[in-house]
Amino acid sequence: MFATTKFGKANAEMGRRLFEIRTVALVSQKQLMSSQKDVNVEDFFKFYSDKSSHDDRYKPLSGADYDRFFSQRSALREPAITRQITSLSYKVGKEMISLAEGMPNEQVFPFTSLSLETKSSTFKLEGKALASALQYIPSQGLPALVAELTAFQNEAHRPPKLPRDIQVTNGGQHGIYQCVELLVDVGDPVITSEFAYTGIHAALKPYKAEIIGISEDKDGMIPETLDSVLGERLRRGLKMPKMLYIIPTGSNPTGTVITEERRRQIYELACRYDFLIVEDDPYVFLNYTDRHTPSFLSLDTCGRVLRLDSFSKVVSSGLRAAWITAPSPLLYRLQLHMQAELLHSCTLAQAILLHLVSCRKTLASHLMGARDFYGKRREALNTALAPLAATIPFHKPDAGLFYWLRVPGVEDVYNMVFHTALQRGLMLIPGHAFMPYNAPCQYLRLTFSKIKYEDMDSAVRTLAELIKDEQQKTLQKPKRLATEG
Ligand SMILES: Cc1ncc(COP(=O)(O)O)c(C=O)c1O
């Protein structure tokens, strides 16, 4: 649970009293009732386990313990006085005469009304509420939204009681970048899965990080491998990683969902080898199984998890609606980064996000709809892929948007993807996109989110032909003789 610090309380209070976004939700009751008939909100938003996570062996990190994790760059950041004043102005709780802030006067803004229709309600901003939604806010985010997200995380993840806080970000990618900047110095080792989301590699590239890729099977990252790799580094006196980046649900690209047992094992390794976990979970609402797998946040008894949530895949990718939940000392430094980088993420987008998360039932109902929508596509692509199953090993993903295929008999799919497939009008992503270095790769990632149903069979037929041709080419390639140099 988030410890209710003085600051946390003030935040919630501030959210209620000071930020004047009053959403005029003109909900058609009939529509709402029909869309929410069978929604069990608590069950849908259950990302915690009923089993205790307490482990006597490891103590929670305290404020000063985090110092060893900060990158040199992050440690140098200092608060901007102007940003502090903005936060203060939202906190004081009464009208103040201000000669302080560099805020524009809302009377010059040209907008008078904003209305957004959702499938079940109308979200309308006018007058003072609209002016506030177009104004500067504290770097952490819209106070009312921060309070709402705090409540949401507490309900959905039930994290162990420690001082934690939330920062609204411009999408999950922004969160990834901020975590890298917070924790990584040039040349540092960083743990990821063997194939990892392109965005983490893009963020790490300029840091020349040593990426320790841990292999996965159908249940995600293998803790025994992680343990043996870290144990070996320790024995050899190599620099130890401070950060593990992981996508626990519907991994991009492999589609795996890490089991509860493995999550617990990986968390225990974080405590034992002293690293922090960046849990990037944008596919958490797209879990097609009926298992309630606890998030790393929910297991975080020691304050080692920075959790990234994003609504990009289920609400809107363009809205950039996302947030980081992290131990307060880490979040404080992330806020300093935000002050220097963006001041804060878009207020209007945050006002819309607030509207969406405020009614859990409507939100759950929408997210269930999104999950069903993608679930049907997952099934359809599975049916289309069925004829390949005998020769091409793949698993139906338990969550997310991707099939991950190994193409046997083809050493490297690069040529196939960028030459022959394009020539035949099929776009594919090669596994290379998810590797931190250049090497031959046998994997392909297939996304089922947008392809038309009627195109699935023909896409798979073309893919089968391409693979057959590529396998033939590999067979026909003259083998190098052992005597050749
Ligand atoms: C695992 C993962 N993290 C982060 C992102 C970026 O998402 P956002 O739109 O929230 O920045 C993606 C997008 O594909 C993703 O797959």
TrEMBL record:
<dbReference type="Pfam" id="PF00155">
    <property type="entry name" value="Aminotran_1_2"/>
</dbReference>
<protein>
    <submittedName>
        <fullName>Kynurenine/alpha-aminoadipate aminotransferase, mitochondrial</fullName>
    </submittedName>
</protein>
<keyword id="KW-0032">Aminotransferase</keyword>
<keyword id="KW-0808">Transferase</keyword>
<dbReference type="InterPro" id="IPR050859">
    <property type="entry name" value="Class-I_PLP-dep_aminotransf"/>
</dbReference>
<dbReference type="GO" id="GO:1901605">
    <property type="term" value="P:alpha-amino acid metabolic process"/>
</dbReference>
<keyword id="KW-0663">Pyridoxal phosphate</keyword>
<dbReference type="GO" id="GO:0030170">
    <property type="term" value="F:pyridoxal phosphate binding"/>
</dbReference>
<dbReference type="InterPro" id="IPR015424">
    <property type="entry name" value="PyrdxlP-dep_Trfase"/>
</dbReference>
<dbReference type="InterPro" id="IPR004839">
    <property type="entry name" value="Aminotransferase_I/II_large"/>
</dbReference>
<dbReference type="InterPro" id="IPR015421">
    <property type="entry name" value="PyrdxlP-dep_Trfase_major"/>
</dbReference>
<feature type="domain" description="Aminotransferase class I/classII large">
    <location>
        <begin position="132"/>
        <end position="462"/>
    </location>
</feature>
<dbReference type="GO" id="GO:0016212">
    <property type="term" value="F:kynurenine-oxoglutarate transaminase activity"/>
</dbReference>
